[in-house]
Structures
1.
Amino acid sequence: MGKISIDISEDSYSKLRHQDYELSILLGVDSFAYALSDERRQIVALREYTFEQQGAPAWQETSAIQTIIQNDKRLQDNFRSARIGLSGQALTLVPSRLYNPLEKNQYLLHLSALPDHAEILADDLGELGCRGLYALPAPLLGALRQGFPGCRFMHLSSALLQSWRKLAEATGSGHCVCLHLQAGELILALFSNGAVQLCNTYPYQSAEDFLYFVLLGLHQQELDNNLTPVFISGKLLPESAIFTLLARYFRQLQFMPTPAQIAVGPQLEQTPGHFYADLFSLMLAS
């Protein structure tokens, strides 16, 4: 079972109101985090478990997830709704006008071999005009469906893309680069006039690796790093090696702001908003 690393309960939280709360769960590369929010999208509780990685992402071990669900008393109750964000496998974008639900396997088989006992899911990205396809272990999805009947699944990249699109439109600069990092993984997207031009996931081991993939994305789209706004999120501090190195190459580098639709209480407010941009994006995803 994972170890609790963050545990926040606001004064407004009530265990008697679980049926009124929305449950948002995010399975990251090395973590299991969830938030409870009320009808005003105010976060009343947030808890995060971290895993020690050994080879494949630990959360893919169904038993580890089942243990958390069975031992965390908050997760035993019924909620108004539940959505679960998933990562650890790459997302493939398919234009909506070309998408055929009967061909889901073929879209992914053209890129790589599917793992054994895989289930393919497809997210409708609405105004982005595409579907996001990804494969995950069927036993894991089955355990989550059993623990949270009626839950809705979404890939982490799908949730981020929807938030990033709004952010890109707000910049009014035409082009925008958005970055999110978790343990050893970078999710990168590039927007042009509100349309996604590039979305990819890269493994990295150093700040130099991280910078290389960001510069590669700009080079592919022939963009000027001095003129392109760059937003970054994840558990990253201004004095970190990654942020310090990026700041040398990008004049318009900033942390992703907390969405205006999300309300945080006094306790969560002490944590930088960009730390949980992934969970916030999941909460707001359509």
2.
Amino acid sequence: MDFLDSMKIMDEEVLTGTYFEQIPETPKDKGVFFEYDIVDESDKSYARLLNNIQTEETFQTIKTDDSIDFKVKGYVVTQDGLLWQIAGIIKRLKHDGNKEALRIIKETIQTSRIIRLTQVENPWELR
């Protein structure tokens, strides 16, 4: 957390999570704490592995204003204790009223990230 993070208005992001760049090896591995809001609740669908074999997958979409360098195939533990793998990231540059700032810096303090998650097993019961 830095000075710019303290300037953000975070009235929507009340849930907390932890980001891991790679799957944790032990329960003592530390991740990066962040705050988020749920965009789309969990939904289940079936994916076809082979011609007649299907598997069930659970997806969720979250949004965060924290300036963490999330990576696709990274891992997120949500507040409910579920472990998710990052399937996609959309970086939304909110430049309402301060578009000129983007000439000098790469992103403003209003930049948010929309993250699409796929649920995976949480063997260490990480939080």
3.
Amino acid sequence: MKTNSLNITQCSSSCPKCNIQTDFLMFESGAGGDFKTYIGETTGTIYRLDMNKIHYLNFELSELLSATNKLESEIRSIPEQVKCKVCHSIFKAEVISTSGYLEVKAVQL
């Protein structure tokens, strides 16, 4: 898989279990939900899933995500599965604040 330099948003949300503010990265999506963000649990690799490929090019979500199976034991969907930096619980970020942008190496699916 090829990595590309992409802009990503720096986000944070409070963990509902321990109430600690947890930072995470997420690709911004427009009203149509253009992109989904996934984080590889094994490698920490950031994946950007192009939802237009699913909606307009008739790709299956499982087909696009299967490309990660050789590298990752598990991938988490962001913001639905944010991992708390303190208690390590997985939570859905309901209220998200942003603090800027970064350029990261990410895999585009």
4.
Amino acid sequence: MDPELTNLIEILITLAAAFIAYVQHMRATKATASANAATATTSQVLSYFDPTDDTVTTAPPEVPGRSFRMTDSTKRWLTFDHSPIEQESLLRQVAEAEAERLDTYTITVPSAWYDIEYGLIKGSGKTEAK
């Protein structure tokens, strides 16, 4: 075989190998960036559910709504034995807190207050009539 033809084949093989190495490098860089983003997201989600960590007070987008939204049965329990005006106020306050994706909040009406955490009633009390 002619030495010039051999050199040309070697150059083409080298270029092909360099191209393959470049593509693999780009894929690895992209995978590393995705892994770093996933690690940051995981850290936020874990902080959100950690009761001792106050750094994340709203649910990250990755957290499903069932984690912080109040169920219909809990809403019925919340509004039981309240006037229609107070029921509307309580449900409006819950909807506003859920729209902000809050995990812990307090809602009040003239006759009572409720501490809500992750969509559950954590504490409540009646206010004194004036």
